[in-house]
Amino acid sequence: MMLAIVILFLVISLLFYVLFGGADFGAGIIEAFASRHHHHTISKAIAPVWEANHIWLILVVVILFMGFPPIYAEMSRFLHLPLLALLIGIVLRGCAFTFRHYDAVHDRSQRWYTLVFRVSSLFTPLFLGMVAGGMLLGRIPAQLEGNSYYSLFIAPWFNLFCLAVGVFTTCLFAFLAAVYLIGEARESGEQKRFVRAARWANLALVLSGALVFGAAAAEGLPLLATFLGSAGALLALGLATLSLPLLWLALLRQWVILSRLLAGLQTLLVLGAWFWTEYPVALRYTNGMALTLFEAAAPQATLQQLGLALLVGSALILPSLYFLLRTFKKANPLQV
């Protein structure tokens, strides 16, 4: 029972990090392609809540470390390079945004802060997606002996499939940010520009999704067959596809709340389909074996304490986040 609760918190934390932290990264991507007139709106949207979004990533790390030590160990060993790049990107992005937004002196250094903020916003999601792809592709060696440095630490994540997953993740974050920013715009003209950005990002997201399936086939991973063979995954992808016309209509009519709900729903459906097909597998090895959540679970005593801490912590964190958003995200007169 407690193992199921811990797994549930792990999945929810991942989904929330994508929905909220992902949009945070995506805002930096959208800013890189937006005019200077929109930079203030984007910064104002990020400023009050960007740090709080990392709660979900911290939860993921803690749950893996405490609840599934073998998975944490394997990731830290074979995927440490993209994980290091991911952490560096998070730190650089946070520092650059803080210095740029709160610096008392505005001089030429602001240009460097802006450059670091945008570049790290673009490449951090890329490495996050490459880590996810590396866990499931099946290039992680089953043993250290007899393998080169490249086979051990480069090949598991530096390949076409992982790159495609990274591009998909980047497009997803940009899409979420563009949709969320529609509700942050204070002028009708600015809102229309974010709508246009959301439509382009959605198109890029669909194309990058097709790229993931193509790259999987090129790398010998039967991803398409796996999805087609799962009724749950087919249902989720079918619903996500059917909701596309409604999403575009909501964007065209600038229905802010409905657009946000549909964007979040599509994200949950796509990721849910992936989780459905892979569960309970967490890592795949080159010898065809896999490490599952059940096999990697910590002793029952540890799971009991971890599950209890998560239940108590959620009772404190969720209301706090609600009041944070309610305080800083006032109602927008342009929202419908």
From TrEMBL:
Its EC number is 1.10.3.-. InterPro entries: Cyt-d_oxidase_su2. It comes from the Bacteria. Pfam families: Cyt_bd_oxida_II. Its main location: membrane. It is found in: Cell membrane. It is an enzyme of class 1 (oxidoreductase). One of its GO terms (cellular component) is cytochrome complex. It is a multi-pass membrane protein. GO terms for molecular function: electron transfer activity; oxidoreductase activity, acting on diphenols and related substances as donors, oxygen as acceptor. The chain crosses the membrane at residues 6-34, 55-73, 79-100, 112-137, 157-182, 203-225, 231-250, 257-276, 306-325. One of its GO terms (biological process) is aerobic electron transport chain. Keywords: Cell membrane, Membrane, Oxidoreductase, Transmembrane, Transmembrane helix. Belongs to the cytochrome ubiquinol oxidase subunit 2 family. This is Cytochrome d ubiquinol oxidase subunit 2.
